[in-house]
Amino acid sequence: MAALALSALLLVIFGPLVLDRFSLNVLARSMIYAMLAVTVDLLWGYTGILTFGQAAFFGVGAYATAMVLTHIGASPSLFVLALVAAILVPLVLGLAVGWLSFYHGSTPLYATVISLVVPIVITQLIYSGGIWTGSSSGMVGYQTLPLGLPGFFRLTGVCLLVLAVVAFVFVRSDAGRLLVAIRDNETRVAYLGISPARIKIALMAVLAGVAGLAGFLFANASGVVAPENSGFVFGTELVVWTALGGRGTIFGPLLGAIGIDYLSANLSGELPFLWQLVVGGLFVVMIILLPGGLASLVTARFAQGGRKRRLDALPSATRVDAMALCAPVVSVTGLGKSFGALSVLKGIDFTIRPGELVSVVGPNGAGKTTLMRCLSDGTEAIEGRVEIGGRDIAGLPPQKVVALGVGRKFQVASVFDSMTVAECLRMVRMRHERPALTQSPDAIDLPPAAIEILRLTGLTDMADRHVSLLSHGQRQALELAMVVALEPRLILLDEPTAGLSKAERMTIGVVLKRLTADLGFAAILVEHDLDFVREISSRIVVLHQGKLVLDGTVEDVVQSETVRTIYSGGAHA
Ligand SMILES: Nc1ncnc2c1ncn2[C@@H]1O[C@H](COP(=O)(O)OP(=O)(O)OP(=O)(O)O)[C@@H](O)[C@H]1O
Predict the structure, then answer these.
(1) Which stretches are transmembrane (predicted)?
(2) Among the four residues 4, 64, 203, 253, which has the most C-beta atoms within 10 Å?
(3) Residues 273-308 as b or e (16 or more Cβ within 10 Å = b)
């Protein structure tokens, strides 16, 4: 990669000696567009945010530059002012757009619609700006940086190269992998105690600033800015170039943008309308035949050679101390939950202490999964009160409930499909360590209990195996190890043995007994397999039609006439 970067630097430095003026002009612009394509790739390719809004931030940066240089003047200090404005104004706008797009409760579609609206609004503002923005004529005639064409070619080339190298290092770091984790499974990221919304807002703001920097370069290199520079047609072109180049690769979108823009400049004169049709047709063909873009032809060859990771046990023991054993981990009082007119949970009361493994059983639709949701997400509208470690969780989103010591394992294993086992486990540690922006360590430190689960289930030897290659049981075990690596006080397990073989079920049973009886975790287990429940539970709670009908020992439940009636389908509220 260093050799590639060095070759690119030499091309940028010596390019003006061999290229004609037309090519220099077009390529300087193409490289600026390539900077934008890299930002689109980080947002869409790596984080899964389909955005058309980068054009708006680019336009704002370009107009901020042109407006400073036109209305205030051009001097060395004013060029610095223009540069600061070109970065800061889009950055603040990006922060506001990010907040609007990713506030709690918004959907990915909503974020994409906002990214379509922003360029339209910015373009309208430019049209309505009168002499301040030049309206439909744009702005021209302001003084630009005195660099000449070769100077601009080299400046934009170096900026693109620096951005590409920074992006390339970043996407391999812990912070970069966290973006991929958000793309793969945002819910799991939240249930690891990390706020995806915060990360996405910060990313959008920073990349809006980078788009603004590209706008500064464009306004200086071209000497003209126009409303189309911030329009959603341009925003769509950026998405097309990124897709054609190969999203999620950095260099694919970079070369895609340069290649298509350069070809467009050469061919659009001779084939003005046909060329657009060719690009559009190519996009459709590519999406069908090569969804990974052109870069996937190259990356597929190199994908196999993954990096070797080591799983190390942290020195600290996770055993809950004797003092804490006295206080309830979870306390539920009068819990009720309705979906419209349908009342799913009614007047549930129970308390769970450290070391207890409480199984929640009941027929389908009894409200078991809903109960788990109410215990792990304080934003669910409920009646009554749920306290974790003595703190009412009302209003707290999942990542804040995780911070109180709750780990949730979902019914369908919730892991990161495009990562390796080691990478998934590394993501769990991001709550305890600030994600590094430039690197990711080879050794992954995990609590001993998590290491033990991996050992018992044979995953310690599969650290570098891709999650997509794991069996159903291995995925369940990996998710359990991830949840335990959070070092929670309370583990919520929704049918952890569903679809597992008898041997795998026994292993999970051993692991759960060890976690609760030996290490002092509290656990709530939703389970249909009553033999399994009988073997490992310290207490059993029976739910029926949303009501808690029995809370007792295994013996109590086995001998209960009510439970027998419920399971034979005879009890009705
Ligand atoms: N988001 C929702 N909107 C409307 N109704 C819901 C929603 N989630 C659950 N329900 C209803 O609440 C009831 C309880 O569902 P829940 O999934 O909690 O049951 P369960 O005991 O976990 O069932 P199972 O054993 O089949 O998983 C069901 O009637 C279900 O249809």
Answers:
(1) 43-66, 78-103, 109-132, 152-171, 201-226, 238-260, 272-300
(2) 253
(3) eebeeebeeebeebeeeeebbbbbeebeeeeeeeee
Residue 315 has pLDDT above 80, yes or no: no
Compute the C-alpha angle 410/415/416, nearest 5°.
Answer: 155
For residue 197, CA distances in Å to 163, 170, 409 come to: 24, 19, 21
Distance 368 CA to ligand 1 centre (A): 8
Query: 567 CA to middle of ligand 1, Å?
Result: 18
| Cα–Cα dist 392/334, whole Å | 13
Average pLDDT (231-244) is 92
How far is residue 486's CA from residue 295's CA, in Å, rounded to a whole number?
36
409 pairs with which residues across the strands? 493
Which residue CA neighbors atom 4 of ligand 1 most closely?
339
Distances (CA, A) of 119 to 58, 122, 126: 10, 5, 10
Strand runs labelled E in 201-341: 224-225, 310-313, 330-339
Best CA proximity match to 478, nearest among 407, 529, 540, 413: 413
The 10 Å CB-count burial string (b at 16+, else e) for 79-93 is bebbbebbbebbbeb
Q: How much is the pLDDT for 323?
A: 46
How confident is the model over 121-170, as pLDDT tens digits?
999 999 999 999 999 999 999 999 999 999 999 999 999 999 999 999 99
pLDDT(310) > 90:
no
Single pTM value for the model:
0.89
Report the run of H or E that residue 244 belongs to, with start and end. helix 232-245
Pairing of the two strands 139-140 and 224-225: antiparallel
Which residue's CA is the closest to the ligand 1 atom numbered 31?
Answer: 365
pLDDT band at 79 (very low <50, low <70, confident <90, very high): very high
Residues 326-336 have a mean pLDDT of 88
**Residue from 359, 368, 372, 529 whose mutation best tests the ligand 1 pocket (most atoms within 8 A of CB):** 368
Residue range 99-120: mean pLDDT, rounded: 87
Give distance in angstroms: CA of 573 to centre of ligand 1.
Answer: 17
Judged by DSSP in three states, 405 sits in coil
CA of 546 to the centre of ligand 1 (A): 10
| Extents of the domains making up the chain | 1-232, 354-377+394-569
* Class level of CATH domain 354-377+394-569: alpha beta
Q: Which amino acids bring their CB within 6 angstroms of ligand 1?
A: 339, 342, 344, 362, 364-370
ipTM: 0.95
> Alpha-carbon distance 206 to 320, whole Å?
41
Q: Measured from the CA of 372, which atom of ligand 1 is nearest?
A: 18
Q: How far is the CA of 367 from the centre of ligand 1 (A)?
A: 6
Ligand 1 pocket test: pick from 337, 359, 368, 370 the residue with the most ligand atoms within 8 Å of its Cβ.
370
